[in-house]
């Protein structure tokens, strides 16, 4: 696209007068990559074609937002997106899509505790894979136009097998939460991570809480136990933070999670929302 890019003292620096439209074939399906290229192409000179583009709802939402500002984008939601660059974008008012991963996390919170929860202002059609796994875990799931309800009726969840893959398959950003669910589920569940390398760090922390987890490359084999035991643990990333909070909800004793600042990148006041559901949880100063 004509940008001059170099790395200087650990920083990536890029410069361009005006980018040029090109045909790009992405080596891997990447949401962030697709979104960044789509934004760059919106103001580039000429037509840009993105092949093997990500199809996630967030990509479609960004395309709709850019289109509302005057961008010319076709094909969002498919693996081929065509963007005709324009001279400038205009201001607009736009309502952002509900966060499907945040919604899924609270649904797992209800399932892991054997509880009953309804998440409102969400998009059930974006969570088909997650809803399916919750049903496999034994949850009674209700769905409306903008809400999802999970009722475990006090039951212990059943273990589920998961294989992450690009949308519309099971999202990698829900892998850690279901790992927490499997640690206290009845039976043995297998989780295969195909998107990110080294995304099992939360598993090591859950072992400290008494989880029975065996790691074999990109596969985690989890045998559910009756109860977890509280322990000091450390969050390594955003979703790991959420999974350790979920594990702490069902662990005997007081669980302390360090480096919780990760969680604020994806959840707004998660402790306050869980408190409203009856959880004994609070944030303490570092």
Structural class: alpha/beta
Mean pLDDT comes to: 96
Shape annotation: elongated
Biggest sheet: strand arrangement: 3-4-6-5
Q: Uncertain runs with pLDDT below 50, 5 residues or more?
A: none
Biggest sheet features: 4 strands, mixed
Radius of gyration: 21 Å
Helix content: 25-40%
H/E element string? EEEHEHEEHEHEEEHEHEEEEHEEH
In whole angstroms, how far apart are the ends?
44 Å
Which features would summarize this protein structure in a list?
286 residues; alpha/beta; four-stranded mixed beta sheet; 8 helices; 17 strands; elongated
Please outline the helices and strands:
Blueprint: E1 4-8, E2 11-15, E3 23-25, H1 31-42, E4 47-51, H2 57-68, E5 72-74, E6 80-84, H3 100-112, E7 116-120, H4 128-136, E8 140-143, E9 147-151, E10 162-163, H5 175-183, E11 188-192, H6 201-208, E12 212-216, E13 219-223, E14 228-229, E15 232-234, H7 238-250, E16 251-252, E17 256-258, H8 270-276
Parallel strand pairs: 3-4, 10-11, 14-16, 15-17
Antiparallel strand pairs: 1-2, 4-6, 5-6, 7-9, 8-9, 11-13, 12-13
